[in-house]
Specification:
about 425 residues
Length: about 425
């Protein structure tokens, strides 16, 4: 055989090898388990990064307030464990279970939101959106997101044949359901959460197949309501005015060290980080310059300590979360699953966009946490519970549960390699 023929056969063999590898990876992506493990991996990475960054961002504040650098981190770690249990439990439920729980969940959410208006409720940073009994406190608006998703998906499924009529699309899901929840949230002056809840409803209606022309009309109405809500609170309206006219935050102005301080130092942190960051734990803005460094503005600390690479990693993980949600929506024939998945994904992604947009200056500072990453027990536990619901939907994909059950665990695989006494005696 000539050398040219041998070279040609070698190249064709290499091409076949590459083609085989591509086919193998494509087959893996098309596996019924892909969505399940993709969601699990993404959320695990986000929670893990969040714990590390909460520790780093909170050490100075925690030491000052609690005489220990680890107090805030340990609380968040406990919440992460509770969220992991909630995720595990919810991922093992059936679709029928979530349908049965839909109406009780939204009913309990409304009761909890009403309790905020009683002496059990208390405020934090201008928002009255918490209830507490002793040392236990929860944020009912986070629970309301889960209730709205489940109840809304169930209502829209039952009215599926009538959704061509805008009246049936809105009643009772939007009127009075969503508006009642948003109204109770706004009574506590929590505009950020109200915006996320409205976005959840829009995402679910879109997934349900409501005609697009109604979204344009609804968008204009929501914008009008948002302007009215912004004018209710002076602080809230001032933040929007500053966003529209950043020159009000010029050095030396009255607002520079006041309401502008948060957004200015958030961008300082991102600028200081550059490409690769100043190093984990080496942030300067967390030393009293940036308010809420471990909560609403934790993305700024990520940018400062881990640089552009760190922030792009967070963005990539949320983009992968969107891909996993889209994959789940397109691969199911269950209308309830499709609409509920759209609601949960809209919740996580819109909240992430509002948080990150506020940090980088593309949106006004509204005050919502970065899902899975920011410090906060109610947000973390309910978000992980919602992901558990998505995992239960993913397990319902034909063949997924059987493949997961048949797949040996790593522990069993390692134990199988250890020779037993019987084997060694032979």
């Amino acid at each position: 055989m000539s050398s040219s023929a041998a070279t040609g056969s070698g190249r064709s063999g290499a091409r076949r090898t590459r083609s085989t590898r591509v086919d193998e990876w494509t087959a893996r992506f098309e596996s019924p388990m892909t969505t399940y493990y993709l969601l699990l991996g993404i959320v695990g990475l986000l929670v893990g990064i969040g714990l590390v960054m909460v520790l780093s961002a909170s050490m100075i504040v925690s030491l000052k307030e609690n005489d220990s650098s680890f107090t805030i981190f340990l609380k968040q770690f406990v919440f992460a464990l509770a969220g992991g249990l909630a995720l595990w439990w919810s991922s093992r439920r059936s679709i029928a279970f979530w349908k049965r729980m839909a109406m009780p969940a939204v009913g309990a959410s409304i009761v909890l939101l009403l309790l905020v208006l009683t002496p059990l409720g208390f405020g934090f940073q201008g928002n009255r959106n918490w209830i507490g009994v002793g040392s236990l406190s929860i944020q009912p608006s986070e629970v309301a997101k889960v209730g709205l998703v489940l109840a809304g998906a169930l209502v829209l499924e039952r009215k599926r044949a009538l959704l061509g009529s805008i009246k049936h699309a809105l009643i009772p899901f939007v009127l009075p359901g969503m508006l009642l929840i948003v109204g109770l949230v706004m009574l506590g002056h929590d505009m950020g959460t109200a915006m996320v809840i409205c976005a959840i409803a829009v995402g679910m209606l879109f997934a349900a197949g409501v005609q697009l022309r109604w979204f344009a009309l609804g968008g204009g109405l929501l914008a009008l309501l948002g302007m009215l809500a912004a004018n209710i609170g002076n602080n809230r309206m001032q933040r929007i005015q500053i966003w529209l006219d950043p020159t009000q935050c010029a050095p030396g102005s009255d607002l520079y060290y006041g309401i502008c301080r948060q957004s200015i130092h958030g961008r300082y942190a991102l600028a200081d980080g550059g490409w690769f960051g100043v190093g984990l734990g080496a942030s300067r803005e967390k030393w009293g310059w940036l308010s809420e460094p471990y909560n609403d503005f934790i993305f700024a600390i990520i940018g400062e300590e881990l640089g552009l690479i760190g922030t792009l990693t967070i963005l990539a993980l949320f983009a992968a979360f969107a891909v996993a949600g889209l994959r789940l929506v397109t691969r199911t024939d269950d209308f309830f699953v499709r609409v509920a998945t759209a609601g949960i994904c809209t919740w996580v992604l819109v909240q992430a966009m509002i948080n990150i947009g506020a940090v980088i200056g593309m949106l006004p500072v509204i005050g919502v946490p970065l899902p899975f990453v920011s410090s906060g027990g109610s947000s973390l536990v309910t978000s992980m519970l919602a992901v558990g619901i998505l995992l239960s939907f993913a397990r319902s994909e034909p063949g997924c549960s059987e493949m997961i059950a048949a797949k040996p665990s790593r522990a069993r695989a390692l134990l199988a390699r250890i020779p037993s006494r019987r084997t060694s005696s032979r």
